[in-house]
Task: inverse folding
């Protein structure tokens, strides 16, 4: 999984029928401190994550292994909200 | 999913039989403002998207999770047309 | 899918039994004008594509969604031969 | 598979129900000597790997092919702990 | 598929039970002449490939489509040993 930060939201009226009612969040990957890198991606939110939170995103067919995304045309899902990260024996991120 | 802009069309007579009648659009990934980056890709259009529109594309096996692409040899599908994007509390893109 | 050009062929005697009789072409990705970029890949040819032609390749599990590649250990397949590409209202490639 | 080093741990209270009780380790890819490169990823640990160990991670749908990850929304799993690596006839890494 | 060269071996005692007895080779991608690029990867060998040989590797779910890897947590498999490559009408690689 990739560490990512929720940075925004997507509004879309015309979309695949299986996506009706799904929350599509804009996320960007981060390193272990929450520092952003890379281009924005859009992930289905299954956990009511908020803008500013650090999350884990699963990509590929893994994104369909939740009750909200089963059989949907989606390739990225938020499947965990991060409380804290510890790297090299040091807490590098802690949720405010 | 990736944010992408529809930039063109592909014409192909000789193709896998399951692709007969499918619209194959040329898309390029964009950032949250619609700024293009990366090389062109080709996506199956399931939503009658038009050239110039910002869309979401799902890649990998997700691309086969629509009624138009089921069991087809395709790895990229347009599954949403974007109305607007809001990042960092600011509207970064709004459909004309 | 990616736009690619067929640039060569692979000869292999020792291979997975499901690949017996399959044509393994060397391809390289191109932009919308046919300009090559990136490293060579090898794709199963299901359409009798010729060296020099521009094609679409599907990657991942999509590569097994043809009658010639079903259940084979292959991750890249040629599933369309491109006649022409039109980007930004301009024909950027037309088959000779 | 990719060679990776376990560099830390992820704490997450709110996560997909199928991830309850799973250990989510922070890993970074390495070369054949254990030299780190790239950004951190998070992998499900199925082998009780420890921080500092070199492991193999499988990505994509392969990550669900263990009894601990079956049908879970995960895309990266630790499926081997590396004892040693030999490249070009030379031992490039040996577990302490 | 990617063209790769077998450059070494991985020794691992603690691994997923489905990998018992499997040969895990270190490979690096090459261009059409056998020139190495990129970082090392680890692939399951299903063809008794030797160090120094040029092979084709299939990645993703394709890696499980052999009798030796079925339902295993592996994402990279060697599914062909290359005899020769011809690119742009010229033999760029021939097995010694």
Result:
């Amino acid at each position: 999984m990739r560490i990512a930060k929720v940075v925004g939201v997507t509004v879309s009226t015309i979309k695949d029928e299986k996506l009706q009612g799904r929350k599509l969040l804009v996320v960007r990957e981060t390193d272990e401190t929450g520092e952003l890198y890379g281009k924005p991606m859009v992930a289905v939110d299954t956990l009511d994550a908020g803008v500013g939170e650090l999350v884990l995103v699963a990509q590929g067919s893994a994104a369909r292994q939740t009750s909200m995304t089963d059989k949907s045309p989606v390739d990225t899902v938020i499947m965990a909200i991060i409380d804290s990260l510890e790297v090299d024996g040091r807490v590098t991120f802690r949720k405010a």
Remarks:
- Strands of chain A lie at 2-11, 23-29, 41-45, 54-59, 76-81, 84-87, 90-94.
- Chain A touches chain E through one residue (CB under 8 Å).
- The first strand of chain A starts at residue 2 and ends at 11.
